[in-house]
Write a structure and sequence with these properties.
By secondary structure, the protein is mainly alpha-helical. The chain has 3 helices and no strands. The longest helix has about 100 residues, at about 30-125.
Length: about 150
């Protein structure tokens, strides 16, 4: 529904001025009075033209503002989509980092246990059973300390 009533009001103003001219031409008044009314009608026409021009400018600005509002809405929607995409990327990256950290943690724990077994076996071969057990006890304490630090 168009809310622009300017053309209707322009026609009404034009109709009133035309009726005033018709009434003035059919009246039997003196020439001085006619000149006075003609100048009044001319002033009314100038005011009408100014009002009509102002309303046309207002309508043009209103249309520009509506177009700008539409563009701003599109821009806000695009920015919202970009922010959502960035959130999804950050979430995906965080999940991958967490999975890699779990994988790395398992690998290092396995390597630590394998190293302990290898060192224990080498200590058993090198020092004998009693010293190997003592070395393993020390190594176990060191691994517990590392686990607390990590």
């Amino acid at each position: 529904m168009s809310t622009d009533l300017n053309p209707e009001f322009e026609r009404k103003r034009r109709k009133v001025i035309d009726e005033l001219r018709a009434t003035l031409s059919s009246s039997t008044i003196s020439s001085e009075e006619k000149r006075l009314f003609e100048s009044t009608i001319k002033a009314l026409e100038e005011l009408t033209e100014g009002v009509d021009a102002a309303h046309r400018r207002i309508l043009a600005r209103k249309q520009e503002m509506l177009a700008l509002n539409h563009k701003m809405t599109e821009l806000a929607s695009a920015i919202r989509d970009i922010i959502d995409a960035m959130d999804d990327m950050e979430s995906n990256i965080s999940k991958k980092i967490d999975a890699q950290n779990r994988s790395n943690r398992r690998f290092y724990i396995g390597m630590s246990l394998a190293s302990a077994v290898i060192i224990g076996f080498m200590a058993y071969i090198a020092f004998g059973s009693k010293e190997a057990i003592t070395s393993l006890g020390t190594l176990t304490q060191a691994l517990k300390l590392l686990d607390i630090i990590i």
